[in-house]
Structure formats: C-alpha cells, structure tokens
Automatic annotation (TrEMBL):
SUPFAM superfamilies: Thioredoxin-like (SSF52833). The keyword Hydrolase does not apply. It comes from the Bacteria. It comes from Phytomonospora endophytica. This is Putative thioredoxin. InterPro entries: Thioredoxin-like_sf (IPR036249), Thioredoxin_domain (IPR013766), TPR-like_helical_dom_sf (IPR011990). GO terms for cellular component: cytoplasm. Keywords: Redox-active center. PANTHER family: GEO12009P1 (PTHR45663). Residues 24-150 form the Thioredoxin domain. GO terms for molecular function: protein-disulfide reductase activity. GO terms for biological process: response to stress. Residues 17-36 are annotated as: Disordered. Belongs to the thioredoxin family.
Length: 299
C-alpha cells in the first residue's frame, strides 16, 4: 500500500498537539449515531474538529481507531468507504472507523498531513502507527487491519471462511437423504479440487449413511460379537459405533480385524478404517492414536 507522507503532521513532534485546532470540546455524551458492531461497540463514526479529542484520541487509548479522510463525490473515496465500513462492522468492536469529511474538516486534514484522499491513518494510544492512501483491494485491507490489531495487542478472532456454495449444496442433499445427488456433488467438487478435505469427508459420510441405513443396531452388534472374524459384521458394527459417538471403539475393532486377516481381506478392512478416519479429520487425537496402532499391526 502507498504510505502517505506524515512528515509535516502533528505526530512527528512525539505527541498529539491540538493547539492548532483551537480548544476541542469534550466528546458528546449522547448516544452515538454511527454504525454499531455486533459486539455492541461503535464500529463507524463521523468525526468533526469538535469531537476529535473524544472520538479519536481518547477512544484510541482503549481501542485502535482508523481515521479515514474522504471527500464527497470523490470516486476513490466512494470505492473505499463501503469496504472499510464492512470491515469495521465485522470487527465486532475490536477497532473503530472514524470518518472525516475533508470539506468540513480541512484543519484536521492539514494537522494529519493529508495530501490525497482517501487517506487512512491508524491511531493507537493517541499516536499514529500506520497509514495508507487511495483505494486498496479488500484482501490487502483485511491484512492491514489484522496487522494493526496485532501491533496493538488486540486478539482478533479468526475470520470464519464461508462454505463453498457447491459444498453447501452437497451438504443440503445429504441432509435431505438424497445420497446419490450428494455423492455426485462431492465427486464433481473433488474432480475440480482434488484432495479437498471437506469434500472427502462428505463423501465418506455418504458412504457411512448408505451402509447403515435401516440397520438394527442391537442385532448388528450381536452379530459382530458372535462372529469376530466376519468382515461384513465387524465393519457394520464399526460404522454404527461411529454413528453412536464411539469412534475409538470402532477404530479398535477394525485394527483388531486387520491383525487377524491377510491379503485382500486385510486390505478391505484397512481401506474401510481409513475411510472412517476421514470422517473425523487428521487432527483428531483418536485418529492419530489409531493410525499409530494400525502402523504397528501392519509393519
């Protein structure tokens, strides 16, 4: 991003000097008119010379403030403002966007050394820490805000990444019990995004639900107990254990079966177990433990 020239601004003297702006009036105590963040704090405010002290300097002692200088009718300002407002709203009160209309706040703009609009200056603890000029791509703005919060010692929550619409559609089909459509959607997505963990887990879920549809749980467990070497009985019992939140038991069951079998039968059981691992994900502690046990049995 282009860094604005702050060489002649009030900040180069080591402290914020408002003498050139006259005596500032205290920040108004009335309810704010700016946009409110989901966390209850004010996300976006309009600032004038009269409210500068309270809305920017005082506020920045507890919350980072990004002062955005803009001009009515300026295309670049019109491009940047809605993006910054959206990011401020998403911040849930972790930082505040303070907008200053340069036409009505020329002395503020001069005090900040603003030479072009739009210009954004980040204020933390009453002092500037970063700045940029002109419209910027949204990803760059998000990173700039993240860097600001990190520098200010603010713990920002990880942004939730929206689910790909194609995966969302596959999940909807799966929830509706349309396994064929769900499988087709997941396979299509994997064809375009090989190795995607979410799609692979979704495909494994389709297989699990298909295999267990209409199964009698008590009868299935009884059959598995009566025939410890029966692959079909043991894999069905393992599937049902997964569905009933007994993943560790399911893994142990199939690892024991791998130890008892050989050749093609062993490979069938191993593949079934690996598919069940995919439902939980590689970071699951139970999966990590079971993988180590499986390696011990295999080698």
């Amino acid at each position: 991003m282009t860094q604005p020239n702050l060489g002649n601004s009030i900040f180069t003297r080591g402290a914020v000097d408002l003498s050139g702006l006259g005596t500032p009036r205290p920040a108004p105590q009335a309810p704010q008119t700016g946009a409110t963040a989901a966390g209850g704090g004010v996300a976006v405010i309009d600032v004038t010379e009269a409210t500068f002290q309270g809305e920017i300097l005082d506020r920045s002692m507890s919350t980072p403030v990004v002062v955005l200088f803009w001009v009515e009718g300026d295309p670049s300002s019109a491009q940047l403002i809605p993006v910054m407002e959206q990011l401020a709203a998403e911040g849930n009160g972790l930082w505040t966007l303070a907008k200053v209309d340069v036409d009505g706040g020329q002395r503020l703009a001069q005090a900040f050394g603003v030479r072009a609009v739009p210009t954004a200056v980040a204020i933390v603890g009453g002092q500037p820490v970063n700045a940029f000029e002109g419209p910027q791509p949204e990803p760059a703005l998000r990173q700039w805000i993240a860097d600001l919060l990190q520098a200010a010692g603010v713990d920002a929550p990880q942004a939730e990444i929206p689910l790909d619409p194609r995966l969302a559609e596959a999940e909807d089909k799966l929830a509706d019990g349309d396994y064929d459509a769900a499988e087709a959607a997941y396979r299509k997505y994997l064809g375009e995004n090989p190795g995607d963990g979410e799609a692979e887990a979704g495909l494994a879920q389709v297989g699990l639900l298909r295999r267990t549809e209409g199964a009698d749980i008590e009868a299935a467990f009884a059959a598995a107990e009566a025939a410890p070497g029966d692959i079909a009985a043991q894999t069905l019992a393992a599937d049902l254990e997964i569905l009933t939140d007994q993943a560790a038991a399911a893994y142990a069951r199939l690892i024991a079966l791998v130890a008892k079998t050989g050749g093609a039968e062993r490979e069938t059981v191993r593949k079934h177990l690996v598919e069940l691992f995919g439902l939980a994900g590689p970071d699951d502690p139970a999966v990590a433990k079971a993988r180590r046990q499986l390696m011990t049995v295999l080698f």
